[in-house]
Amino acid sequence: MDRDASPNLSWGRRIGFAAGDYACNLYWQSVSLFLLFFYTDAVGLPAATAGLIYMVASIWDGAIDPIIGALADRTRTRFGRYRPYLLLGAVPLALTFCLLYYRPPFEGWGLAAWMLGGHMVFRSCYAMLSIPYTSLNARITRSSSERSTLAGLRMMFATLAGLTVALSTQPMAARFGAGDPARGYLAAAAVLALVATAIFPIVFFSTREPAEAAEQGPPMRMADYWRALRGNRAFWIVMAGIGSAVVCSTALGKSVLYYFKYYLHAEAAARTALSLGAAAGLLIVPFWLVVTRFTGKRNAWLVATAWGLAGLAAFGIGEVRSPALMIAFLLWMQIASLGLAMTFWSMLPDTVEYGEWVSGVRTESFVFGLGQFFLKVALGVGAGLFGLALDLVGYRPNLEQSAETLEGMKTIMVAFPAAGLILGGVAMLFYPLRHGTHEAIVGELALRRPPVPEAG
């Protein structure tokens, strides 16, 4: 292992590390874009049941994230704390992803229970790999600007993964399904899993972790982690911001396939919309990287919030009845979404040093684990509320929807995201790490730390 977390990484290490987000997002984007639709329109579950399954599995995922984070923080191997999980977790994750898209020959409650169980097993395996992977972001460098670069690269790879999933899933499902959508989605999942599994060893060999400090105290208990995090105001504000935004904005992302199929009667155009949205990220992410460097992370968040609210206002007032206009609206909202996502992943590692500065204890993986807990619970609650809202406005799968149901779907797409953006923006007004503050904290912490052991 390296003696220290280098402030400036080589481009080989930057790209090798960030490539892990391509693999992770082959899974994540598939779940985000297609799983709820798969539940309702391929498996045949009611929308409220599908949303409930998604919500329960997401909350389960989030609940185990801090535990996995604490476990990873205690791990000590010659390869580092977090890197071994990339190798050990890759194959189980691939297998359980395929299980996620397997429809058993059950009906009713038996079918719902199977789909819930498969989803929870997948989420457990995903957490065992993704928490250590994201924790590496705080471990391989302590430079705030370098972390912004890494966040931008990770978002670029995540965007490429989203483009891959959006372009390939429906064609693969149609080709391999032979008229059976469920079987087609399973085949598409197997292909994506093979690609992701091949990438994680590359990430393992491309990254390095710093040597441990010479003086190590006894292993921390779970209560110690909570005490260390209690006064981390930066972390709690970031969680409040992203939680509010995600709970409510999930409704917009989950609505895309339904809107094109039932409102516009142009289901095939949904693939174009998802693909263009993902491809646009290749231009949008560098834009936000520049904005963040010049304005600071907090101000970048507020700019993204204002951008998103302007788009929602235009969509709510106007009539979007053509695929082209809908695609234009989704591209506008993608700018806001990627701005918030990139800023969040850039802010989260900075809260590690803020917490260490306040408490004297560094809890990298626990911070990332708890951060993903809030993120995933927010996603789950958002999906559950969306499924319930669809039921309340009268949605029934694979049938012509009434005018009232269509109007209700549009209201869901506007009111939920707007509320989340406003609440998230208000929370971010209180974020303590302004431009230059983090760098000063890192400098002070460097003077406090004990020396690392000599190499060799």
Rg, rounded, reads 22 Å
CATH class: Mainly Alpha
- Quote the beta fraction: under 5%
Name the poorly predicted regions: 1-5
Structural commentary:
By secondary structure, this protein is mainly alpha-helical. The protein has a single domain (11-210, 222-448), classed as MFS general substrate transporter like domains (Growth Hormone, Chain: A, Up-down Bundle), CATH 1.20.1250.20. Helix content is 80%, strand content 0%. It contains 15 helices and no strands. The chain has helices at 11-43, 47-74, 83-88, 90-100, 108-139, 144-177, 181-206, 222-230, 233-263, 267-295, 297-317, 323-359, 364-392, 403-428, 437-448. α9 (233-263) packs parallel to α13 (364-392). The chain starts with 10 loop residues before the first helix and ends in an 8-residue tail after the last helix. The model is unreliable at 1-5 (pLDDT under 50).
